[in-house]
Amino acid sequence: MAKKSSIEKNKRRQAMVLRFAARRAALAATANDDSLSMEERFEARIKLAELPRNSAKTRIRNRCEVTGRPRAYYRKLGMSRIALRELGSQGMVPGLVKSSW
């Protein structure tokens, strides 16, 4: 199980990304618009840089929904390999069969 503080920090980041998504997208579109003047684009870049760092989508860490583990995360299932194996062994994941040879 991951530290509670790490899990909560990631949840706060996810909430902040949602809160600033529209503002960030508008500023990015302005900054990348070639039809605008360089001054307007530069101002948009400055405003984009002034937004909180944790409002950037790339700051979110994929974590296992079951254990909070940050590594060996399967996007399709939303959990780590260890949690998947445990739930698969208990028969909780439909269609998953533990291989043995």
UniProtKB/TrEMBL annotation:
Gene Ontology molecular function: any one: rRNA binding
Pfam families recorded: Ribosomal_S14
List the InterPro entries hit by this protein, alphabetically: Ribosomal_uS14, Ribosomal_uS14_bac/plastid, Ribosomal_uS14_CS
Q: Is Lipoprotein among the key words of this record?
A: no
Q: Which UniProt keywords apply?
A: Ribonucleoprotein, Ribosomal protein, RNA-binding, rRNA-binding
Which Gene Ontology CC terms are recorded?
A: cytoplasm; small ribosomal subunit
Q: What does this protein do?
A: Binds 16S rRNA, required for the assembly of 30S particles and may also be responsible for determining the conformation of the 16S rRNA at the A site.
Q: Quote the PANTHER family the UniProt record gives.
A: 30S RIBOSOMAL PROTEIN S14, SMALL RIBOSOMAL SUBUNIT PROTEIN US14M
Task: State the family it belongs to.
Answer: Belongs to the universal ribosomal protein uS14 family.
* Protein name, as recorded: Small ribosomal subunit protein uS14
Name of encoding gene: rpsN
